[in-house]
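User: structure tokens for this one?
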Amino acid sequence: MDATLSRPVALDGTCRITDRGVIRASGPDAATFLQGQLTNDVLKLPPGRAMLAGFCSAKGRLQATFIVWREGPEDLLLMCSSDLLVPTLKRLSMFVLRAKCKLSNASEQVWLHGVVGDSARALVADRDVWSCLAAESGTTSIRLTDVEGMPRALIVTGPGGAGEQFHSAPVLSFDDWRWLDVRSGIVTIEAATVDRFVPQMVNFELVGGVDFQKGCYPGQEVVARSQYRGTTKRRTFLFDTPRPAVPGTDVFAAGTGSEAVGTVANAANDATGRASALVEMRLAHSAGAALHLGSQEGPLITQRALPYSVVVDTDAAA
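Assistant:
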């Protein structure tokens, strides 16, 4: 049976995003504080733009990933997986010290919605990816990457809704939105995958989540060493599976015994019980190997094309 998911050719509509939360960083030192903690250059983030960024441990392992944008001259918002918001907020707060920066959980005040397809087309027309547009109504829209030719946007509002312009839009299922997220090839760290991946293992620098020219942040030396010494032996690839998948599930290659060669980073299941998954894995098994979900006897998974290129260094893969 082909593991390709049974999604419509073209998705259209809007939905409330329920698996993400928002941290607010407020104060005159907010950007400077985040500059010293995140993998991207927050000080270069202008109004009208959003960016990806990661928060690493001292060993360079991702504790969380964010979409970051400005809300006024002294406030920044950081969207992350909701199951990580509380521990991430606590950990970040440990480093504030004397900085004039207040961190808080803004999830109840900041609602997130996704919009895709024809419902998003006029909104994102002639806008670059990661452009951030604030409307007089208080609604902010961030253009996300297209998925299989379908335009997408993140809509940020106060409590209550996605704005009058979307009241007549079709209702998009949350499962379809999560599928779009997975097919974008951009990994979001979730509770099941905390402290497992250096940014390069999940292609985070390939999608603009790491700035190698900025100053120090936790784990920066490890991340830089992986980049400049070419020591990355693991990358993330897109797969379809004939059974449901969940983050943290191991992936096995034929003939390698009980040792896993990969880990599901993100997954989206459909109504038929199949899934699309981003799998972080050894480069040596990234092409041509028969891969199984969950165990050596688990179902075969089928590799699909990512929307960006991953160059496999055969020397690094060895």
